Structure formats: structure tokens, C-alpha cells
Amino acid sequence: MKKVHNFSAGPCLLPTTVYEQAAEAVQNFNGSGMSILSISHRSKEFIAVLEEAKALALSLLGLENKGYTALFLQGGASMEFMRIPYNLLAHRAGYINTGTWATKALEQATQFGEVDLIASSEDQKFTYIPKDIIVPTGLDYLHFTSNNTIYGTQFNAVPKADCPMVCDMSSDIYSREFDYDKIDVIYAGAQKNIGPAGLSVVLIKEEVLGKTSRSIPNMLNYQEHINKGSLYHTANVFAIYTSLLNFRWLHNLGGVSAIEKVNNQKAALLYKAIDDCDFINGIAKVDSRSKMNVTFDFVEEKMAPLFDALCQDTKIMNIKGHRSVGGYRASLYNALPLESVEVLVSVLQQMNSLV
Ligand SMILES: *Cc1c(COP(=O)(O)O)cnc(C)c1O
Fold it and tell me: How far apart are CA 79 and CA 138, in angstroms?
């Protein structure tokens, strides 16, 4: 079988060794003769998995011993859109709107209190990250989305504010160095850069909790999940184990700083090819470009069928843009090899020689 180059935006590619080890564990977990799918979430074997996953989830970002708890929950990032204001919004929160996911997060928050729109890039179809953001004082928290998966834009720094910071990092967590410790609640759906779908990771500073007087149902209550160590109910055992395998892979590689170098290399290579080809437009503004999701379109629609055919020949898969934006999107998450980007670049160069 010819090698496939899978640019999926999510659920995304994971390292080959992670697939192999996860597959082995489905048959025979840690030599126990039992499948990872069929052991108790309260067994001592799984508790060891959970504790190592929590420790690595924090230490890979330099957040160990800084007052954070790592939670492994369910409901995806979309559940956190609601769980965040349920737990943190007493009066007023600020939201930066940089796209579909940020909009959804903001809309959920309006059900719990006042929401200030602090900045937005909606005026230019979310193709840029707002600059010189001024945040008023007295907010319960400020929410932003570090990487906008659909549009291919990315914050290169944490916005400055004197309130607790909350960030949806679904599509760039563990991809780069960042001032993670300036953010009080970091959350992510696992299926972009952590592990399989059906799991969300929330890294939370306990000190931001307990500021609202509303009563919070247990499943929605961060404090309850902290108290129960992510075992309030049956955890997603397989997704947590597979995420642990991915955390170990990243740790052995040298951590976030090591993968960031590779990610920078992949993104630079692809953006250069896009900039070198007059027949392609990048969708995101140059100074807001994401290193995880590269969005582009052809100047003339008639180029698209040729590109599609070349992609098919070279086994480039899942590169169509999000249905709301159109065009193309190449997702370059941690596990995507440099080689796949080189194949995509060679396709663009081949087209360049034809025009
Ligand atoms: C994919 C994505 C989401 C939605 O995640 P679910 O786990 O499907 O709820 C939210 N935010 C961002 C930035 C995403 O990329």
C-alpha cells in the first residue's frame, strides 16, 4: 500500500508507535492477559496510567508544582464552553472572538452572566488575530482561543489582563512553548493534538474556583472532579491510555521545545511554497498565521481539480478546508511527519512548473 499523508484537522494523526502500543494494549494490556478495554477504571493498573498521564499532562507544559490539577473529562471542548461559565462566571466575563469555536464559547457564557466582547476579527471573516487588545478591569475571567483551527490563525502570546485567564487550546496545546503558567484554565478536546476523540483535558488552578454562589450539578462541577481525581464516574480508559502513550512519545522526543522546532520547520516549508506560488492565496493574514492549520485557496477556481488529482496520486488525504471557509486546510499537528509536508510542497511546485 502506498504511504498515505493524512492532513486531518481532527480527529487527527497520532504517532505510529502510539497506534502500535494502543493496538497491543487492546489485546493484552501490560502483559496482563486482559484488554485495556476491559479493566476497571478503579483498578490499580489504570490508576497508575491515570496518575502518570496527569503528571505528564502538566510537566510537559512546565506546570508541575504550580497549583494546577489535570482533569480528564468527557464532552469534548464544547462541554467546557458551558462548564467554564457555570463554574467561573459570577458577574462579567470577557471573550475574544476569533472564529466559530470562540463564538460558540461566548454564546454559552451569555446564559450565565454578562459577557463583554473584548475584541473580534469577525469584520474580516476571522482571518486575523486582533492586536493591542485592551482588557477592562473587574472581569471574572478573560477567554481566548489560542489557535483557530478553522481559519488557520494563532495567538503568538497570551493577551495581557489582570483577571484570571481561560484558554481553549484544543488545536495547539503541546505543539509549542507558550506562557502556559499565565493561563489559569487551559482546556482542549483531546482529538487534535493529544489522543482519541471522546476525552477533554482541563488544566486548572483550583484557586479560581468557588467564586460563584450558584449551585452546580456534580458532572459540571470542576471542584467535584478535582475532589474525585477525574474518577467521579467511569473515565474514558482507552482514550486516557492512548493519550498517555502520546505524552510519553513527546516526552522521549525532548518535550514541547523539541516538537516546536519540527513544527516550525513544517510550517515554514509549507508557507514558503504557498508564498512562492502566484496561483495560491493564503487565507489567514501573514502576521496571524497558524503553525498547526495552514489554510489556502487557489486564485482561480480552475486550478482546484488539478490539485485534487495530484493529491489523489500522492495519497494526500483530508486536506479540504472546513465547510464554512472552503478552500484547503493542511493540519500539521505534532504527529504529522515532515515528509508529508515535503510531499505536499512537491505537489505545489509541480503545479507551479505547469502554470
Ligand atoms: C475542534 C475544536 C473544538 C471542538 O471540540 P469538540 O471536542 O468537538 O467539542 C473547540 N475548539 C477548538 C479550538 C477546536 O479546534
Answer: 26
| Ligand 1: residue whose CA is nearest its atom 14 | 170
CATH of region 255-353: 3.90.1150.10
101 in contact with ligand 1, CB cutoff 6 A: yes
**277 touches 348 (CB < 8 A):** yes
Q: For the domain 16-253, what is the CATH code?
A: 3.40.640.10
Summarize pLDDT for 18-73 with one digit per residue, the tens: 999 999 999 999 999 999 999 999 999 999 999 999 999 999 999 999 999 999 99
Among residues 92, 87, 62, the alpha carbon closest in space to that of 73 is found at 87
- Cβ(146) – ligand 1 distance below 6 Å: no
- Protein residue with least CA distance to atom 3, ligand 1: 77
User: What is the reported pTM?
Assistant: 0.98
pLDDT at residue 88, rounded to an integer:
98
Chain region(s) in the chain for CATH 3.90.1150.10: 255-353
